[in-house]
């Protein structure tokens, strides 16, 4: 007998669509448009419930904390190069997010969240031994240290807001404990990804969608950088000074 093909319809429980009506998780979108803040809408869509004021404020803070890191990041430089090439704006942030997706830049949030998930399961003694083993091997613990800041002001502010809200959980607690150990032994503080990642995990968000918060936070910055670059009146596709000459430096 020929194999019978079964057609399986695509289904989703997120939003119901009826004529002249949309209901997301059972709530009329007209109500969502009128009453929800942006961070409440994001939380509601992903979690299926309205956040508490504390949850909404912490999510807002994490998103806003990623709004800009200046032009020092390779991702931002990619956006500027896109403007120099007169690429449409849509292509500029795509370039920025693609270039910055590595674990040492914008992909650091996901890598940190994954590591914090594992470390939160360790006992105090196991955590101490783990950190020391990484230090002895000269390995970086994701979410700690920064190439410019000895105290990442974004991380400190997120921690302050968490304290003000009385918010904590196993992942943020673990991040704070690691920072205590690293401060004592290497004078290393946590950066934005450990603070933000710990908060996101304790809010219930998965590392699999961590890039969402980077995209939400950084997109307006890329628009600002793109427009600023165009406003400078630079000649399109300028020659860039590069060199493949290696200069040997020797001790005299």
Overview of this protein structure:
By secondary structure, this protein is mainly alpha-helical. The protein has a domain at about 110-205: Cytochrome p450-Terp, domain 2, CATH 1.10.230.10. The chain has 11 helices and 3 strands; from the N terminus they run βββααααααααααα. The protein has a 3-stranded antiparallel beta sheet. The longest helix is centred in the last third of the chain and has 22 residues, at about 210-230. About 30% of the residues are buried. The model has no long low-confidence stretch (mean pLDDT about 90).
List the helices and strands and how they pair.
Blueprint: E1 15-18, E2 21-24, E3 27-28, H1 29-35, H2 38-47, H3 53-65, H4 74-84, H5 91-99, H6 108-119, H7 124-136, H8 153-165, H9 170-186, H10 192-203, H11 210-231
Antiparallel strand pairs: 1-2, 2-3
Helix pairs in contact: 2-3, 3-8, 3-10, 3-11, 4-5, 4-11, 5-11, 6-10, 8-10, 9-10
Brief characterization of the structure:
The chain is mainly alpha-helical and 252 residues long.
Count of DSSP H/I helices: 11
The structural class is mainly alpha
Distance between the termini: 86 Å
Q: What is the string of SSEs from the N terminus onward?
A: EEEHHHHHHHHHHH
General shape: globular
In total, the number of strands is 3
* Low-pLDDT segments, ≥5 res: none
CATH topology value of the domain at 108-207: Cytochrome p450-Terp, domain 2
Helix content: 55-70%
* CATH H level, superfamily name of the domain at 108-207: Cytochrome P450-Terp, domain 2
Average pLDDT works out at 92
